[in-house]
Amino acid sequence: MIADLKGFIEREEPHWLELEKELARMRDGLGDFSDLKYARHVLSLFQRASADLSRIQGYSAEPELKAYLERLVGEGYAEIHSASRDRRSFKLWHWLVRELPQTFRRQVWGWHVSVGLTLAGALVGAVLLSFDLDGREAIYPFPHLVEMTPSERVAMEEKPAGTDRLEGAKATFSAQLMQNNISVAFRALAFGMTWGLGTVLLLFYNGAVLGAVAFDYVTDGQWVFLLGWLLPHGSFEIPAILIAGQAGVVLGRALIGWGTMGGLRTRLREIASDLASLAGLVGLLMIWAGVVEAFFSQYHAPVLPYSVKIGFGILQLAGLMWFLFFSGKERREPGERS
Prior knowledge:
Elements: H1 5-27, H2 36-56, H3 63-86, H4 92-106, H5 108-131, H6 143-146, H7 150-158, H8 170-190, H9 197-219, H10 223-256, H11 264-297, H12 306-326
Helix pairs in contact: 1-2, 1-3, 2-3, 4-11, 4-12, 5-9, 5-10, 8-9, 8-10, 8-11, 9-10, 10-11, 10-12
């Protein structure tokens, strides 16, 4: 028996309205039941509404309230129990604009680790090269970076050529770049199976190469060429490797079990969908980076002004960071659950 019906309604109505809103989001395919915290919250709202309906059974003063709660509980039962059937449906647009950035932010700690390891490697690479400028072959993986100094390479690249050396071969070159870059990135992810150790070493090595190259070009006075060369495609390629490293350390942590509950199977099941989304994001970024590197990055001044290339790269990087850190957020009303 409810002694104070008015107080009961005032106390419980916000929860009923929130349940209504969540059920509407589920009908629109926006409710993510793979998020355990979200699923528990919706279930608690449903159980509360069910308990409220039970409390007013036999209470004849408010037939409209009883009918409302019966409808709400019925809809909740149908939506919650159909969620498991619908969760396998893949909605490409929703995955692109919401799932990818939300997944990145859900595992953002791995991104911070990945960035930290790369920066540490970059610092070590720059220091090593500062002590031994003739030891570049020990660090650089590409022969053309070893065989000539940055100034010699810039002079060669900027030398007027009668023909386009990539004429008729840009698509093939682009495909080769995609294959190589995706291979490197996916190794960073897969090395997470070594409890994250392989991922850590790969990120550190990539950072060392980047740091050495940057130090080499900057100390030779070729920093403008360096930015114009790397930014157009590197603004996607380097973050893609960092995201692959992010997925690798997430996988390594799940295998080790640091700070997580449950057994190994539970831990792997909890991160499986996140790893798949991060891998998909890496693949998309690498495909675009391969296109830009083959069709844009290979052309230097005077054919293509460095200001245009650098500006293009900065815009791309800013757009990507906005997408990763700020897009895909759910709109919430004031006072709504965070």
